[in-house]
Amino acid sequence: MSTLVKQLEETSAYIRQFCKTVPSVGIVLGSGLGNFTSEMKVECEISYGDIPHFPVSTVEGHQGKMIFGEMGGKKVVAMAGRFHFYEGYSPQQVIYPVRVMKMLGVDTVLISNAAGGINQNFAVGDLMIIKDHISFFAINPLLGKNEDDLGPRFPDMSEPYTSALISKARTIAERLQIPVHTGVYTGVTGPTFETRAEYKLIKVLGGDAVGMSTVQEVIAAVHCGMQVFAMSVITDIGIREEENRITHEEVLQAAKDAEPKLTSIFTHLIREL
């Protein structure tokens, strides 16, 4: 047994001491989206700082705890706060919670994030279902010796976001009369927001939105055989002619304003899994 797998088992065993819930759905909440858990019937909460081998979230807008409970009639675990490469964590630390979810029984993971809009048809507050991603600007978290107990050496990434879940979510959004886009998410390291030239480059490459998270988590989830659904809240528009300054506070506010729509779609999707 590798050191990593041993640590994952120790982490999972510690969590099971306090939370008897066996979740089938995992939820990763992005910046400004922590209130999502108010829709959960909470059974147990554990702060990241209390969990063995777990990193600790340092970003404003991230609560920093695992929350177990029920939503949409399913047993779920939500990460209220995630880890980012730009915080100084290694890619392996960034994906550690996703692997823990797998060890706890999760087979479907729902991921949210705050993203900058590249597609000029987008507006602040819009929702984008992620159909694919560009990960060339992020460090692949599977570099190094493969953990054969977790997944294959060369995982197929032709469908990182489960098409059946995308179709189901689009139907739900239409039924709820919530406008949604579908597009390509580009993952970057951050922590700087992109330059005008970088926004234009991402547009040329086919990106519809850009952010500092998600792709490493998705790669890890696919590696260990999980189904994935992800959605971005467009919190700023990168390509524009006027003043182009963006602040983290603006991002958090835009995410908070859009949160009820994202929560509604996630809740209904979980119910229909």
Could you explain the architecture of this structure?
It is globular and about 55 Å long. The protein has six helices and nine strands; from the N terminus they run αββββαββαβαβαβα. Strands 5-8-7-6-9 form a five-stranded mixed β-barrel. It has a single domain, classed as Nucleoside phosphorylase domain (Rossmann fold, 3-Layer(aba) Sandwich). The chain starts with a helix and ends with a helix. With 273 residues, the protein is an alpha/beta fold. Helix content is 32%, strand content 24%.
| Count of individual domains | 1
Supply the number of helical segments. 6
CATH class: Alpha Beta
**Looking at the chains present, what oligomeric state does this protein adopt?**
single chain
Strand tally, please?
9
SSE topology:
Elements: H1 3-18, E1 25-29, E2 41-47, E3 65-71, E4 74-80, H2 91-104, E5 108-117, E6 127-134, H3 163-176, E7 181-187, H4 196-205, E8 209-211, H5 215-223, E9 227-237, H6 248-272
Key terms:
273 residues, alpha/beta, Rossmann fold, five-stranded mixed beta barrel, 6 helices, 32% helix, globular
